[in-house]
């Protein structure tokens, strides 16, 4: 009987070590480095991207709650599989802005004069404003409109005292896309599992001064959430806007001293534009 017990204990110990090692591998696989995304990666999911990558960040205190963006969602998107391949910012501004341009200082400043004018069946005219989302709410994308087949856009400005690497952790349902300073850093069509659950920690680069981040999530049915936080050091050292702002005017006033001054209507070229033209 003693030998059977010892054998059973040995097997259990080996199994525990295998599980522990596997868990460690999954945790390591949760990191994405080497961005921004290349031209052939813009709509590709991270790899690996399975359920076993999920990490619960519900106890994290850094979840961002205030965003700047259109005052309502894009509606009737035909499912996120359809809408994710279309630039809804380009469509809504007749080419005056695109998703890439909007994630730059000059593009953000253009929102002072350029409204979003989607078709009536897709939400119609949208003004720009500051809105708040509850990171614990699994349906925080449902902003007084349809709850299914919607796309949400949100923006923040991150003021960094010096150039640095930062880790961003996005939670989303369903398809998430994130641009920073005119370059795309994250694309994932897979929902993360819960409003404060993540699949990937993404290493990004912030320049000294103001950094513009654009976050888009497309949703088909069921839960609908868009959430983001950075690593502790980034939240401690950097200032994130909107801060006290409650509307477009106060937000643009907050970031005027943070963003570089660009002539309205004259967008600066991004590194992504330069690479595509070479």
Please characterize this protein's 3D structure.
- With 278 residues, the chain is α+β, with helices and mostly antiparallel strands.
- The protein has one domain (33-276).
- Helix content is 25%, strand content 29%.
- It is globular and about 40 Å long.
- The chain starts with a helix and ends with a helix.
- Mean pLDDT is 87; it is low at 1-29 and 263-278.
Q: In sequence order, what are the helices and strands, one letter per element? A: HEEEEHHHHEEEEEEEEEEEHEHH
Separate helix tally: 8
Main β-sheet, in a few words? 6 strands, antiparallel
Distance N to C terminus? 75 Å
Low-confidence stretches: 1-29, 263-278
Fraction of residues in helix: 10-25%
* Global Rg: 21 Å
* Overall structural domain count: 1
Record field, number of beta strands: 16
Mean pLDDT: 87
Structural class: alpha+beta
Counting copies of identical and different chains, the oligomeric state is single chain
Percentage of residues in DSSP E strands: 25-35%
Tell the overall outline. Answer: globular
């Amino acid at each position: 009987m003693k030998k059977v017990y010892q054998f059973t204990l040995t097997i259990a110990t080996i199994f525990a070590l295998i599980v522990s090692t596997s868990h460690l591998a999954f945790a390591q696989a949760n990191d994405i480095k080497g961005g921004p995304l290349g031209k052939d990666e813009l709509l590709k999911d991270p790899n690996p991207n399975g359920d076993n990558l999920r990490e619960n960040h519900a106890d994290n205190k850094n979840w961002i709650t205030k965003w700047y963006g259109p005052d309502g969602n894009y509606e009737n998107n035909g499912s996120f599989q359809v809408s994710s391949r279309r630039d809804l910012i380009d469509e809504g501004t007749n080419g005056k802005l695109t998703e890439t341009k909007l994630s730059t200082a000059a593009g953000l400043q253009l929102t002072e004069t350029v409204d979003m004018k989607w078709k009536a069946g897709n939400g119609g005219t949208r003004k720009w404003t500051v809105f708040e989302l509850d990171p614990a709410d699994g349906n925080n994308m449902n902003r007084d409109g349809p709850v299914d087949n919607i796309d949400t856009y949100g923006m923040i400005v991150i003021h960094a005292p010096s150039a640095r690497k930062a880790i961003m952790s996005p939670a989303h349902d369903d398809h998430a896309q994130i641009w920073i300073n005119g370059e795309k850093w994250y694309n994932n069509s897979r929902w993360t599992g819960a409003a404060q659950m993540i699949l990937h920690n993404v290493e990004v680069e912030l320049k000294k001064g103001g950094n513009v981040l654009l976050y888009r999530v497309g949703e088909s049915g069921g839960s609908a959430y868009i959430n983001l936080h950075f690593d502790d050091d980034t939240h401690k050292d950097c200032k994130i806007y909107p801060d006290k702002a409650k509307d477009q005017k106060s937000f643009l006033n907050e970031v005027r001293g943070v963003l570089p001054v660009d002539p309205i209507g004259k967008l600066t070229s991004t590194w992504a534009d330069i690479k595509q033209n070479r």
